[in-house]
Design brief:
There is one protein chain. By secondary structure, this protein is mainly alpha-helical. The longest helix has 45 residues, at 5-49. The protein is built from 14 helices and two strands. Helices cover 74% and strands 2% of the residues. It folds into two domains: 5-49; 71-302, MetI-like (MetI-like fold, Orthogonal Bundle), CATH 1.10.3720.10. The chain has helices at 5-49, 66-72, 75-106, 113-121, 128-138, 145-152, 167-192, 196-204, 209-220, 222-237, 241-246, 254-257, 260-270, 274-302; strands spanning 52-54, 60-62. A hairpin with a 5-residue loop joins strand 1 (52-54) and strand 2.
């Protein structure tokens, strides 16, 4: 008994769908493998390692939650946690605001717009070591260009990187300077996706530039802003290289600037205490997860999707 045309069409359609799904899985396989090897596996490995006690470069021993008990009983961890959160507060709002303002300016028709975009993005491609060297010279208390400029105005500048009251703010300024270009590019892409018809209609209704900005621009790029804030917050919590190179352990301001990742580096690569270092990493991930959860709850009320 021969198959009807409908049955043949169904078999052909199923075979075609099977081939399409196969190609889809093949195309996303590199990403899935990369995520598994570079993100998922390291997470569970860190979680397991945090339950071990390492003997330098020798064997390890399972000790359960002792690393966490030691960590949460340490005043240093709570101090560095507070430093990390304070660094987030200092960098994320200021950095995103500056990126938004600069992106709005570069979205207008000004001369040399492409040149300005390249200049603002340039810090993202410069090595952190080079950035730290330049900013250490700028913040130098005696011969730094910043204090020399303040002295010309009759102001005696502070010891930016060695004063516990100003060191973290100085590091945050470098962090904002380094990241604002990347955030600017993302926000600028969101601005350029907004149709001009919204602004034309608002001009007919008599809206000024401020009303256009807060009632049209900000709501329409709110998904982009949400993504930028989310990524900037994560990167700020994981901040290590800039602070580590600007403020050395012998610096009197070290305790007021050390973040969780600085403590992780010391425990993992100087003391070879991998178990305790992994517990610090897990604690950092818990903080990131908690803040991210709050952001996703706020997204439902603050983010507008067309």
């Amino acid at each position: 008994m021969t198959a009807s045309p409908v049955q043949r069409d169904l078999r052909i359609s199923k075979a075609r769908n099977k081939n399409e799904w196969l190609w889809a899985y093949l195309l996303i396989a590199p990403t899935i493998i990369g995520l598994g090897a570079l993100n998922v596996y390291p997470f569970f490995d860190s979680l397991y390692t945090s339950l071990l006690k390492s003997q330098g470069l020798g064997p390890t021993k399972f000790i359960g939650l002792q690393n966490y008990a030691k960590m949460f009983g340490s005043a240093e961890i709570w101090r560095t946690t507070l430093n990390t959160l304070w660094y987030v507060v200092l960098t994320v709002p200021v950095g995103v605001f500056l990126a938004l303002v600069l992106a709005a300016l570069l979205n207008t028709k000004i001369r040399g717009r492409d040149l300005y975009r390249g200049i603002y993005f340039l810090p993202m491609v410069v090595a952190p070591a080079a950035i730290a060297m330049v900013w250490r010279w700028i913040f130098n208390a005696e011969n730094g260009i910043l204090n020399q400029a303040l002295l010309m105005l009759g102001i005696v500048g502070p010891k930016w990187l060695s004063d516990p009251n100003t060191a973290l703010a100085a590091c945050a300024a470098v962090g904002v300077w380094s990241s604002v270009g990347y955030d600017l590019v993302l926000i600028l892409a969101g601005l350029q996706s907004i149709s001009s018809t919204y602004y034309e209609a608002s001009e007919i209704d008599g809206a000024n530039w401020a009303q256009q900005f807060f009632r049209i621009t900000v709501p329409l790029i709110s998904p982009t802003l949400f993504f930028v804030i989310l990524m900037r917050m994560m990167n700020s919590i994981k901040q290590f290289d800039t602070i580590f190179m600007l403020v050395k352990p012998e610096n009197p301001a070290f305790k007021s600037t050390a973040t969780l990742m600085v403590i992780f580096f010391r425990e993992a690569f100087e003391k070879f205490n991998k178990g305790y270092a992994s517990a610090v990493v897990v604690w950092s991930m818990v903080i990131i997860g908690a803040i991210t959860a709050v952001q996703f709850v706020a997204e439902k009320k603050l983010v507008y999707y067309e």
